[in-house]
Design brief:
The complex is a heterodimer.
Chain A (H helix, E strand, L loop, with lengths): L2 E4 L4 E4 L4 E3 L1 E4 L5 E7 L5 E7 L5 E4 L2 E4 L9 E3 L8 E11 L2 E6 L3 E6 L1
Parallel strand pairs in A: 2-12
Antiparallel strand pairs in A: 1-4, 3-9, 5-6, 5-10, 7-8, 8-9, 10-11, 10-12
Chain B lengths: L3 E4 L2 E4 L5 E7 L5 E8 L3 E10 L2 E4 L6 E3 L9 E3 L8 E8 L10 E2 L3 E5 L1
Parallel strand pairs in B: 2-11
Antiparallel strand pairs in B: 1-3, 3-8, 4-5, 4-9, 5-6, 7-8, 9-10, 9-11
Classes of the chains: A mainly beta, B mainly beta.
Chain lengths: 114, 115
């Protein structure tokens, strides 16, 4: 089946620290991969995406590379800010039964302290 | 601005009562989705609709019902059969299934609690 496994946290970092959130997936076919971010009390916002192997998604200083050989899509940021405090979800999108479906990881809560 | 509007933001339900959560989008998206979010469990798909007047069960459809009479609207009813309805409910939409690289766009959610 299709599934996503990600670091669950919670994780607390100091401002300007390096961030890595691991995400691995299991899928049949060639899924698209996404990172979503959820700020407190809000819905999910798309952070970045990659649609094929070796694609790199980037946005707001975050990056993730679609690695087919390791079935991974790890999220990284070189220097986090307090405003990055949120829950981060890794997701894959696949076609099943004639419809498009998203499968989410369980999310990882990040707190960045000044 | 285009987007997805969910209402109300907070909703309270008495035991044995049905409640309906609203989801409206003005993005002209064909597909709409309802998810349930519980602490530590990520998002789980309740129902989805690829086109008007058609919808499909997701992974946890029991105790819920939906309708899709208009492209812009996809209301979710939490029935009295749903024994554990307290959760954060998220509505999403996407363009259509032929563009599977396109992401889903999410509303700000409705938090449902039992009185």
């Amino acid at each position: 089946g299709n599934s996503v496994t990600q670091m669950e946290g919670p994780v607390t970092l100091s401002e300007e620290a390096f961030l890595t959130i691991n995400c691995t997936y299991t899928a049949t076919g060639y899924p698209s991969l996404f990172w979503y971010v959820q700020y407190p009390g809000e819905g999910l916002q798309l952070l970045l995406k990659a649609t094929k192997a070796d694609d790199k998604g980037s946005n707001k200083g975050f990056e993730a590379t679609y690695r087919k050989e390791t079935t991974s899509f790890h999220l990284e940021k070189g220097s986090v800010q307090v405003s990055d405090s949120a829950v981060y979800f890794c997701a894959l999108r696949y076609t099943g039964g004639g419809s498009e479906k998203l499968v989410f990881g369980k999310g990882m809560k990040l707190t960045v302290n000044p | 601005d285009g987007g997805i509007t969910q209402s109300p933001k907070y909703l309270f339900r008495k035991e044995g009562q049905n409640v309906t959560l609203s989801c409206e989008q003005n993005l002209n998206h064909d597909a709409m989705y309802w998810y349930r979010q519980d602490p530590g469990q990520g998002l789980r798909l309740i129902y989805y609709s690829q086109i008007v007047n058609d919808f499909q069960k997701g992974d946890i459809a029991e105790g819920y019902s939906v309708s899709r009479e208009k492209k812009e609207s996809f209301p979710l009813t939490v029935t009295s059969a749903q024994k554990n309805p307290t959760a954060f409910y998220l509505c999403a939409s996407s363009i259509d299934k032929r563009t599977h690289n396109q992401p889903q766009h999410f509303g700000d959610g409705t938090r449902l609690s039992i009185l």
